[in-house]
Amino acid sequence: MTAKTKSSPLFLGIDTGGTYTDAVLWSEAGGANGKVLAKAKALTTRHDLAVGISGAVDAVLQKAATDPAAIKLVSMSTTLATNALVEGQGGRVALVMIGFSEGDLARDGLKAALGTDPVVFCPGGHDVHGNAAKLDLSGLEAALPELGASVSGFAVCAYFATRNPAHELSARNLIRGITGLPVTASHELSAKLGGPRRALTTLLNARLISMIDRLVAATEGFLAARGIAAPLMVVRGDGALVSAAFARQRPIETILSGPAASLVGARHMTGLDNAVVSDIGGTTTDVAVLDRGRPRLDPEGATVGGFRTMVEAVAMRTFGLGGDSEVTLEDGALNPRILLGPRRLVPLALAGMMHGEAVTVELERQIRAANPSRMDGRLAVRTGVPERLAAGLTGAEAKLYELIGATPLAVDRLLTSNAQNATLNRLVSRGLVHVAGFTPSDAAHVLGKQANWDAATARLGAELFARKRDGRGQAIAATPEAISERVLTTLTRLSAEVILETAFAEDGLDGAATVAHALVQRAVDSHPGIARLSVALDRPVIGLGASAPLHYAGLPPLVGHDCVVPEDTDVANALGAVVGQVRVSAEARVSQPQEGLFRVASGESVRDFNDEAAAIAAAETDVRAIAAGRARDAGTDSAEIEIASEFRVSTVEGQRMFIEAHVVAVASGRPRIAV
């Protein structure tokens, strides 16, 4: 390195994905965009995230021959929260609804998100002006001893808590006092109205706390062990940076963290102001649009795993499509299609590399069988998460979980009935068990297009999959190579569909998925028809992800435009993590519950004023102070604060009538670095 590089502060970016953990060492010296000094990858180790993190970061430090003490800022993005929601994983939590009825669970997907987790209803809540109904927490108090032993955290949502959070605060204090477990209150996450969706957001946040807490703790422990005394930042879903402590309390805001970082990285690497960015990972493909150099944000809140949250994030569409997607076959068709995802499997090539004969012996046994089985090529293994996260298992789940160990076990030996397959899937959804099986990553190994894991095990998996029967009872492919080609072609084809679906959705077209599939089918395959169709994007695609050069090589004719794959595409997320800014906001509402009385709801306080101007001034003072405090907590000492006010008024007989005011403060600045 040059003397200039040595004298400039170094920044370490880390991205913890579903399959790989990436690390990049970056310096502001080296031109307008700085310089990547070194980059590296290591397998993400879900049972102990510190192992994967240390593998990637140690490799970077060794490549750059850098003193760890020279690193002045560490910033991390992660797809763990996104993947957890897509795959239906997360800790078991209890939802506390104050002032709501059971019928409210049917709104905004809340009941589906809740699943079998417990819910407690309590009388209470407030009206639109913050006036309280009678609060009764006796039922909650009676249930807490039992709930405290079977859940990993609590989510509390009260009716109109955004106008007065007093009842949520009371419930939060009660729960913490009796159980000592993490509690998320809805007013801490969003100031928007819409109780069931706010409850959904709070529920998902509570589920993710233990996962993000383990990630942050693992990273902090590793940094301390290496003598890196630098602040740790985390990328939020809108691309902004926040401190690790901030992210620990609000992990829901890290959904789409990895994709948001990739957008920042894509813009930084290519200089393109207008593009469709498609980031393919092991578990998901994330697609978003760059307009005039900035990512489009979703004004309605991020949608992940089919759930519309209240989290402000990039307008990213996340699809369960990646290199480690489950490969299955369409049921009941004469010429069945290859189906991919949305569930992630541990690729057989990876399982073979990690567990050797424990995997290959079982696959060879299944190949010797006279007839193929639906369970061929599938193995189950524990994820290695702490035992406390297995709390609340049913009898059937606990019995099956006991049979599964740290060494992969063939599913056809494990399960004795079809009912147990559903039980196994529930253990996977809880994040307690991984299933290994045939994936596009295995297909790439079979064809020699990927070589980082065990190709021989991948070929066994492909041979088993090729034996599956079509509607005529014939094998679906003659060779492992033939089925592998079909799988990779399908992945590129589906990648084009999700990119076009995103473009159609951004253009406001209904039924975007159906339109995308039909257009790709007709335009690319040249299907005969009275209507001849073609389709083309108005901007290039930026392909991100380690496997983008492979899977996106055939993309241009499918989308009608160029596909740019940057040199450092494999670490775009990690690079984007270190070039962003801290950005936080605070909101206040001013209402008029009765003529001449102006009520200010800001943060956790509610105050009344007799004068509109005084109420607005107080709201602005409050949000400025709250935003400044949040900016410090989020990791910046140099925040610039902008305040905007929006008024709702009416005119009655020529007189202005105040209805409501919404005051927002936004604080932004570069993160603080170690001295």
Give me some keywords for this one.
single chain, disordered N terminus, globular, 24% strand, six-stranded mixed beta sheet, 675 residues, 22 helices, 29 strands, alpha/beta
Question: Brief description of this entry?
Answer:
The chain has 675 residues and is of the alpha/beta class. It has 22 helices and 29 strands. The chain has a 6-stranded mixed β-sheet with strand order 3-2-1-4-9-10, sandwiched between helices. Strands 11, 12, 13, 16, 23 and 24 form a 6-stranded mixed β-sheet that branches. The protein has a 5-stranded antiparallel β-sheet with strand order 27-26-25-29-28.
Give a description of the structure.
This protein is α/β, with parallel strands linked by helices and 675 residues long. The protein is built from 22 helices and 29 strands. The strands form seven sheets. It has a six-stranded mixed beta sheet, sandwiched between helices. Strands 11, 12, 13, 16, 23 and 24 form a six-stranded mixed beta sheet that branches. β2 and β3 form a beta hairpin. α10 crosses α11, α11 (357-368) packs parallel to α16 (455-466) and α12 (395-403) crosses α14 (418-429). The chain starts with a helix and ends in a 6-residue tail after the last strand. Residues 1-6 have low confidence and may be disordered.
